[in-house]
Design goal:
The protein has 280 residues and is of the alpha/beta class. The protein has 2 domains: 7-219, 2-enoyl-CoA Hydratase, Chain A, domain 1; 223-270. Helices cover 42% and strands 14% of the residues. It contains 11 helices and 9 strands. The protein has helices at residues 31-46, 68-77, 111-114, 130-136, 164-172, 174-183, 189-194, 204-221, 224-236, 242-256, 260-270, and strands spanning 7-12, 15-20, 52-57, 119-123, 127-128, 140-144, 148-150, 187-188, 200-202. The strands form 2 sheets. The chain has a 6-stranded mixed sheet, with helices on both faces. Strands 5-7-8 form a 3-stranded mixed sheet. A hairpin with a 2-residue loop joins strand 1 and strand 2 (15-20). Helix 5 (164-172) packs across helix 6 (174-183) and helix 9 (224-236) packs antiparallel against helix 10.
Length: 280
């Protein structure tokens, strides 16, 4: 397993848990962390033994935003120093089934859309700034009820970065997105759930248990191939009209009829048992 410095990765029960691991800094985001997370998602996304990915933070925070030292360097230079590239042989997902997403999401969080495995953000504490944007690209978001969120950009003289001005309104609507972006106000997990920014807000003591139950359900009940295709279908529709989306669906449905997954899905239904889908 790769020797990461700012994250931990644990694989169990077909679930890869990626943990941001700078607890002394509330897991503040750094270029190294960004690179390590991307690499870990790439590894898990191509591992046939993994069917779901959960991302969380060590200690009492999910991630407290960009590391202040890096911000000070950016102020001095008048520009970002950019992301580190510790893993030049970045893992891509060109062979994953479903519509091709290459070129649609070029930003460095677009790989979360491209990953064929479901990605669950487990927001156990403060989630601000770039880290909030990161979670927008995950497939599911579960938060602690008292987790603190803020976009923070306007309060730092910045703009909505990494596609958040495009993604956020599509998740919660334009009016709510304008509120959160322009005001840079803080809000809790309970409000995030009311805005449908997260799937649910839960007591901190039951957050990880709920996420693991969700991940375990996906790992057992759902076909890995079906999940991969449907993830890509949904993300591809954002650049398609209805006729194109319908044509893609027809093509993918006909392809699915010839797969072992379809055969196993039908046989398990007839035999009234839990499906045993093949690995992706």
């Amino acid at each position: 397993m790769t020797d990461y410095q700012e994250i931990r990765v644990e694989n169990a029960d077909r679930i890869a848990t990626i943990t941001l691991n700078r607890p002394d800094r509330l897991n503040a985001w750094t270029p190294r962390m960004a690179d390590e997370v991307r690499h870990a998602v790439g590894i898990a996304g191509q591992d046939p033994d993994i069917r779901c990915i959960a991302i969380t933070g060590t200690g009492r925070g999910f991630c407290a935003g960009a590391e202040v030292k890096n911000l000070e360097i950016t102020v001095e230079r008048g520009k970002s120093r950019g992301e580190e590239t510790l893993h030049p042989d970045d893992i891509a997902f060109e062979d994953a089934p479903g519509p091709d997403l290459a070129g649609i999401y070029p930003d460095h969080f677009g790989y979360l859309y491209d990953c064929p495995k479901p990605v669950i953000a487990t927001i156990n504490g403060p989630c601000v700034w770039i880290d909030l944007v990161f979670t927008l690209y995950c497939d599911f978001r579960y938060a602690a009820e008292d987790a603190v969120f803020t976009t923070a950009f306007a309060a730092r003289g910045l703009i909505a970065e990494h596609g958040s001005a495009w993604v956020l309104p599509r998740l919660i609507g334009e009016q709510a997105a304008l509120d959160l972006l322009l005001s840079a106000r803080k809000f809790r997990g309970t409000e995030a759930a009311a805005l449908e920014l997260v799937n649910a807000a839960l007591p901190g003591t039951s957050l990880m248990e709920t996420v693991r139950e969700t991940a375990a359900h996906l790992a057992v009940i759902s076909s890995p191939r079906s999940m991969a295709v449907m993830k890509r279908q949904i993300q591809a529709t954002r650049s398609q009209d209805f006729a194109k989306a319908l044509a893609v669906a027809d093509t993918e449905m006909h392809a699915s009829f010839a797969t072992p997954d379809f055969r196993e899905g039908v046989e398990s239904l007839v035999e009234q048992r839990t499906p045993a889908f093949p690995d992706l």
